[in-house]
Amino acid sequence: MAQGVKSTVRRRTILAEGPITLAIDIGGSGLKMQALSPEGKPISDRLRVPTPNPATTTAILSALDELKVSVPRFDRVSVGFPGVIKQGKTFTAANLDPGWIGFPLARTLERRWGKPVQMTNDCAVGGYAVIQGHGVELVITLGTGMGSALFTEGLLCPGLELGHHPWRKKTYEDYLGKRGLRMFGVKRWNKLVKRAVAQTAATFNWDTLYIGGGNATKLTLKPSRDIKIISNEEGLLGAMALWRDRV
Question: What is this structure's pTM?
């Protein structure tokens, strides 16, 4: 296993009939990778390394190469990326390096690894793992920044990036991301989260809200019938949805 790689799931890789998907979650704080069976079940360890600093295209691609060594075999790749994705390119990358803007990540990985690649926003990938496919469902992640994904009857509405929308005197991400948590402290940050939740309900009239991300563990907001707190591991398990209706 590559030096510095953390494994949070101890599971021996098994043989499976059908395509094995390599799920990748690129985040502002960590890079994660796991192999999934044709049924979407984990069949390898969940690997994680810190996101390089600076998070340039070269540094992250090299780190992914190192992680890949610990995955015995795979047939295709699903990537969740923290930004807007258009035609396999990373259109925005607010919490990484500016060199990611307009970078052809899907094509680069296909040439680098010789496998087909599908990619979308990282919050959307996590959302695919938890949504029920009924009504309006909003997913937000609280981590380095603030991710968001909106689904209607199970269909993704791409390019939302709610974290960068104006809210109060700045943006949602300024208050609810890592910078906001450090600036305001946990108690006030939680009050801001509750206010933001109320604002999203008024804006989107969602039926169900899912909240995840690394800082979701600091929430004092109580889960309810229409508000769910989700595991940070969902960012990998929704990877199979990127291959629906594709041969």
Answer: 0.89
